[in-house]
Amino acid sequence: MKVIAVKGSGRANAVSSMLIDEFIRGAESAGHEVKVYDVGGMKLFGCHGCEICRKNGCFCVRDDELKPYWEDLKEAGALVLGAPMYMGQPDGQMMSFMNRHYCLKNADRSLKFTDSKKLVTIYSQGAPQDYAKYIPAQENYVNVFTGNGFVSEAVICAGGDSDLDALKSKAYEIGKNI
Q1: N or C, where is the chain less crowded by C-beta within 10 Å?
Q2: Nearest CA to 124 among 37, 9, 27?
Q3: Sign of the alpha-carbon dihedral angle for 1, 97, 20, 165
Q4: 8 A C-beta contact, residue 19 and residue 13
């Protein structure tokens, strides 16, 4: 299966990136092909609501470094997203990435993908792992994708109080069993 891994942090050694790397290691050990997009360092635009994607039945037409992602997403069976949480929200670059998925529905609000794709989300935050104020934002982020036909397989949240070795093992196992 083709798996797309999206890293949202602008820092190379960020916790969310380390956990995605473990997920990738697990997925590759199981024979999956993994394509990585490091949106934390990409030049990408936010959605500007042009509606071309919905009116013409196409994917996003913005001409930036995210353009190849849409073709890869068509072929993928799974998507793993990693993002740091700042001020109760995924970081700005991941928010722009998330908003670009507006194009996954047609004008009649039907889904462009007829197959369901697996979704794994990974968050990191300085706040404790189960910090109540951040949970609604994390759920909203997952809901953007499940509302577009993805099936949430797992959510990992690394808080400032988390056992990173245990979470790395968990990410590896999730990747291996995706």
Answers
A1: N
A2: 9
A3: negative
A4: no
Summarize pLDDT for 26-60 with one digit per residue, the tens. Answer: 999 999 999 999 998 899 999 989 999 999 999 99
Confidence of residue 86 (pLDDT cuts 50, 70, 90): confident
Are 81 and 24 within 8 A, CB to CB?
A: no
d(CA 174, CA 168): 10
CA atoms within 13 A on the CB side of 21: 10
| Cβ within 8 Å of residue 91, ≥6 positions away | 8, 9, 10, 40, 83, 84, 85
CA gap 92, 13 in Å, rounded: 18
